[in-house]
């Protein structure tokens, strides 16, 4: 053989394996030569007539982005000649920053505004988007990303912490489009159907992950929340009768009016809410809980979501930092203000700004901060080895990821001695804090959950079109003084209003009618498809929920509910009902609003499966397309750190694998592409084999990691395609591929393991080097050769 694909297999494989398997490989080489013309002919002619949808794969951040460097070449190779087209779209934090400031950059540095493009695509029936976890950036993360880009020659302006001119205020507003939940509200043009795939749940029961036991008695762990003057207690809500517009304005005690937001379009049937967090009460609450944790010898831990709730929660976080370190921060308030230290960005920001001071003054302030620990309770630690506490960086502790871990670890968090200790979990607002207390009480009474026997709680979540709190960012304000903040319609009528004191946090939210109608429909459909009880988590004592409840009752009447078990319960009662069923091994569907969707789809998967990254998340978009979300990325930063330090990436791409199955099936049903259906079916089989063979990444260095997992998935998928008899061409194409991958298993795994155990340079964190990432994530020359020459 002297050329073409056959010679590559002969020289690249046969020469390496002169063993008893040589005949197999010779046959492989001959088959490849024989079908080379057939494959080219099919691709050029017969497949031209196959309609298809384009599959859009998002380039995001951290571990999921790194894993894509290993997986995407496999997908591109397997999709050849099938009519399945794959494109990528960069919606990473760095990509969003670059796209926002493209006018500052050279042409070769510019990145298209892919987030806006995908937002428009999500409103079209042809949308088929696989969305990986992305960074919801806090201000410290934004600053770090900007610095990294600037260091690589990108002329990105600095973020103005305290804008003092119109130009700086405009710049801050542009950056606001990058911060926090910049991605999800844009892409989520549909409601969420999130659950564990059957094979994943079966595997979790067969191979249960370890959870730490709850003590039989004596645990002082609890959730602490406010009892008044929080968002829950102040919330007001109304449904708009007809399409109109409104503005938000502040009226001070003298009657002077200041417009905070000029215009809010409102559609017929839309629900509008507003609520206030009274910061004086919040500060008293923090002080009380600090003292209570100290008295109980428990850790003090704060649980917010400063990434998704990017305006309100950093402010609440900052008040906690200010209260815990009050003695030092108040003593040096003037100096700290001059150097721009911002407690809303956490204690780490305050400490970093001290570098601007003379050494003697810096040491004095550091000593005063350290002294605060002496008469305070211990703080829950994010990284005890580095002294990084729960209050250092607002994006480090995210409630939907942190609270399930408290429960998984027997009601405890890590202290500075790197030991587990009971904690007072502080969740200021009552809207959702109470559900976690129910779980803690259940565990104290019944012990730890058993993943081998527990049932599932899937979720149907109301999130389309920026529903509820996650759409509040542009309508959240700090009260500039004492007075009233009101929402006023175009005709001058006051729709809603709240009394405020200086510094209070006001937020307004919207929920459109169409998403609610679709949410009810999806909840009923899931109940009917599964025969499982569906529970709407709604509290009539809460302003917003009372309005939603009226719509739910109206839209439930549009459906045949015979033989279905549909319940409407307060969140506390819904949690009790679900936990009772979970402990009996029974399944339940939670039908919830946007924030509870977020919280529950981390809580139950972490308890059931060990991680929420293994969940199947399907978003049927309102206009007929679909969005497939691949799991949670809360642990992604630690995975990157391990790769850079030890050459091991423990990120589990099972969420991506699972998302591809319905994505390909959508291409089959809407695009009329039978090969997409076959790819979907065989991939599903491969995932089952992947789980059965335990090919998921190990946490230990020099054992299988993400790259090995991708190889074994590719092997199982090739075998499934070779074994099927529905499509002769694909069978002939993948038979030699499966044989080559199987024969080379030892060599491939050796090459993959050889890449571990040493530091890896990927050329950056937020904006890594493309070539270095490819080299790091594709270290097996043997595997690369097989995949690249398919």
Return Rg in Å: 27 Å
Strand order of the largest sheet: 2-1-3-24-23-4-15-22-20-21
* Number of β-strand runs: 24
Helix content: 40-55%
Main sheet overview: 10 strands, mixed
Name the poorly predicted regions: 1-52
Q: Distance between the terminal alpha carbons, to the nearest Å?
A: 18 Å
- SS class: alpha/beta
Net shape: globular
Work out the helix count.
30
Mean pLDDT value: 90
Estimate the strand proportion: 15-25%
How would you describe this structure in keywords?
24 strands, 790 residues, globular, ten-stranded mixed beta sheet, alpha/beta, disordered N terminus, 47% helix, 30 helices, four-stranded mixed beta sheet
Gist?
The protein is built from 30 helices and 24 strands. The two termini are 18 Å apart.
What does this 3D model show about the protein?
This protein has 790 residues and is α/β, with parallel strands linked by helices. It is 47% helix and 16% strand. The chain has a 10-stranded mixed sheet, with helices on both faces. Strands 5, 10, 13 and 14 form a 4-stranded mixed sheet that branches. Strands 6-9-19-16 form a 4-stranded antiparallel sheet. The longest helix is centred in the first third of the chain and has 23 residues, at 22-44. The protein is globular. The two termini are 18 Å apart. Mean pLDDT is 90; it is low at 1-52.
Question: Which helices and strands appear, and what pairs or packs with what?
Answer:
Layout: H1 4-14, H2 22-44, E1 54-59, H3 62-79, E2 85-90, H4 93-100, H5 114-121, E3 128-131, H6 139-151, H7 166-176, H8 184-187, E4 192-196, H9 198-206, E5 222-224, H10 231-234, E6 236-239, E7 244-252, E8 257-266, E9 271-277, H11 279-295, E10 299-302, H12 312-324, H13 326-331, H14 333-338, H15 347-353, H16 359-372, E11 381-383, E12 388-389, H17 399-408, E13 412-414, E14 420-426, H18 430-446, E15 457-461, E16 476-478, E17 483-489, E18 494-500, E19 505-511, H19 513-530, E20 534-537, H20 543-556, E21 566-569, H21 571-583, E22 588-592, H22 594-609, E23 615-620, E24 626-629, H23 636-646, H24 654-671, H25 674-692, H26 706-723, H27 728-743, H28 745-754, H29 770-777, H30 781-788
Parallel strand pairs: 1-2, 1-3, 3-24, 5-14, 10-14, 15-22, 20-21, 20-22
Antiparallel strand pairs: 4-15, 4-23, 6-9, 7-8, 7-17, 9-19, 11-12, 13-14, 16-19, 17-18, 23-24
